[in-house]
Write a structure and sequence with these properties.
about 325 residues, Alpha-Beta Plaits, alpha+beta, 6-stranded mixed beta sheet, Ribosomal Protein S5, domain 2, globular, binds ligand 2P0
């Protein structure tokens, strides 16, 4: 049995930063994201009786399946009552090392392809739970447009999955992604959030603030209020980075280009353009903007010496199936 699925990464508008259960990937609090158009991971899973181990190929190169990939496949086998091993072939339409949340699109596509290849038809919450066990943020990429990850409270994680807030057609919201010059990431998101929870004196303050940010962002999405959405998303991103910077030892995800973009965005906003920055656990800057401002903003960002590329994105689709082939 074989299935191919495609999924897109997402930009967190209210960030997920901290787990309450490392193994099950259960978050400390809720988060809200926008699934991004134009960036895709395409994954084919084939369950094959002749394999004696799970096999992985990423962008055409053989790769060692991580514990999380094996765990997700084991979860699918348990649900399907099968012991069959799988071949997984995954390709990204964007540079994997660029720090553009390939784990979110990767595990969302893997959850859909693996479950269908195993003959399962999971509903969207079930798929979201499965994707979450590969990478937390992947549970939100199951949906297009805007999605909220409900943290849940049960120890087994059965109530921790994402729900749709608004589909991609709800809001024509351009997002410019400024890729800045940078080296390899030194601290993974998983390590960064674990260290933040354990050592950052700002973590309790972050926790206290998040629910208010979730309320405001839900409202901004419902009312298509760019000013409110952008303001809260920027504040939330800056706070997440401040929490990480205050950890022991400190974590700095930014490059010089990050600050160059932040300063430029601020100056352009004062000059009347709609532009609100947000960074995930990396140096690149996503800028929420409006149709009126996007062209001028793009030119200004591209002119910055530390910016290597600017991609235009916006609300994109959820995980979808391309092909299923049975025995
Ligand atoms: C987010 N990030 O909400 C936050 C904001 C990065 C900054 O989720 O350990 O790869 O696999 O659950 O999902 C990136 O962390 O971490 C992330 P795991 P993940 O998008």
């Amino acid at each position: 049995m074989r299935a191919t699925a495609v999924a897109n990464p997402n930009l967190a508008l209210v960030k997920y930063w901290g787990k309450r259960d490392e193994k099950l990937i259960l978050p400390q609090h809720g988060s809200i994201s926008l699934t991004l158009q134009g960036l895709e991971t395409r994954t084919t899973v084939t369950f094959d009786q002749t394999l004696d181990h799970d096999d992985l190929c990423v962008n055409g190169e053989p790769a060692r399946p991580t514990g999380r990939v094996l765990g997700l496949l084991d979860g699918v086998r348990a649900l399907a009552g099968s012991a069959c091993r799988a071949r997984v072939e995954s390709e990204n339409s964007f540079p994997t090392a660029a720090g553009l949340a390939s784990s979110a699109s990767g595990f969302a596509a893997l959850a859909l392809a693996a479950s269908r290849a195993a003959g399962l038809t999971l509903d969207r919450p079930g798929l979201s739970r499965l994707a979450r066990q590969g990478s937390g943020s992947a549970c939100r990429s199951i949906y297009g447009g805007f999605a909220e990850w409900l943290p849940g409270s049960r120890p087994d994680g059965s109530d921790s999955f994402a729900e749709p807030l608004a589909p991609e057609e709800h809001w024509d919201l351009p997002v410019l992604i400024a890729l800045v010059r940078s080296g390899a990431k030194e601290v993974s998101s998983s390590q960064g959030m674990a260290r933040s929870v354990a050592t950052s004196p700002f973590y309790p303050a972050w926790r206290r603030q998040v629910d208010q940010d979730l309320d405001l962002v839900r409202r901004a999405i419902a009312e298509r209020d760019l000013n409110l959405l952008g303001r809260v998303a920027e504040e939330n991103a800056m706070r997440m980075h401040a929490v990480a910077m205050a950890a022991e030892p400190p974590i700095l995800y930014w490059s010089p280009g990050t600050i160059q973009v932040l300063e430029k965005v601020r100056a352009l906003r004062l000059a009347g353009l709609a532009a609100y920055p947000s960074m995930d656990a990396g140096p690149h800057v996503h800028v929420l903007t409006s149709r009126d401002s996007v062209a001028a903003l793009r030119v200004e960002l591209l002119a910055l010496g530390e910016v290597s590329e600017v991609r235009l994105s916006g609300p994109g689709p959820g995980a979808r199936l391309l092909d299923v082939a049975g025995p």
